[in-house]
Design brief:
By secondary structure, this protein is mostly beta strands. The protein has two helices and twelve strands, in the order αββββββββββββα. Helix content is about 10%, strand content about 45%. Strands 1, 2, 3, 4, 5, 6, 7, 8, 9, 10, 11 and 12 form a twelve-stranded mixed sheet that branches. Strand 4 and strand 5 form a beta hairpin. The longest helix has 13 residues. The chain is globular, with a radius of gyration of 17 Å.
Length: about 190
């Protein structure tokens, strides 16, 4: 478990989800408290056996809901334009599929390559975020509830300290940068 408190490992995990042309400005180890992610894909189908969404010109709309209601270790990072979440270990999520989605607040994502289920819900542009409520929690931690414009919700906890050992030496500095970025979505932190 202490291996997850490593900035190098964290930066490697972020690379998988980093939007083209962007760099990670700050990242920390945090705790995922709850998530309900919603994404709508166009002209595709779900390959249940392979656990992936496959583009298909004869396919239709597919809404994927990815949820988790128990705590998990997650790297939380920000770029100039995005919030990035990378799980520290492989965790299970609840997936629900709908071929006739409610399109209120949803943007259709057209794909040209396969998308694995575990790659859904890891990077959110600040434009996708409706608001972020930041509240103090126990022992100096801060809880953030990020509400997406499409109705999705992510609840995160940003601990005051960077974990065991000295693997996260920039934790305090990066935590403040993340809170400032998320707080600015509501006009200030």
């Amino acid at each position: 478990m202490s291996g997850i408190f490593d900035e190098n490992r964290m930066m490697q995990a972020f690379k998988r989800y980093l939007p083209a042309g962007e760099t990670v400005l700050a990242g920390i180890h945090g705790i995922g408290l709850e998530s309900e992610i919603r994404e709508v894909f166009g002209t595709c189908f779900y390959d249940e056996e392979g656990g992936r969404i496959i583009p298909d010109e004869n396919g239709g709309l597919l809404e994927v809901k990815k949820s988790k209601y128990s705590k998990w270790d997650v790297y939380i990072g920000v770029t100039a334009h995005s919030l990035i979440l990378a799980e520290c270990e492989v965790y299970r999520h609840l997936y629900e599929f709908d071929n006739n989605p409610d399109m209120r607040g949803a943007a259709v994502r057209e794909i040209d390559t396969c998308v694995r289920l575990e790659d859904i819900g890891n990077c959110f542009s600040f434009e996708e975020i409706g608001n972020c409520v930041i509240k103090n929690a126990w022992m100096g931690a801060v809880n953030c509830t990020v509400t997406l414009k499409n109705g999705g919700v992510i609840k995160l906890q940003l601990p005051k300290r960077g974990g065991i050992g000295n693997g996260m030496p920039h934790h305090a500095e990066y935590r403040e940068k993340i809170l400032a970025a998320l707080g600015s979505l509501n006009g200030g932190y």
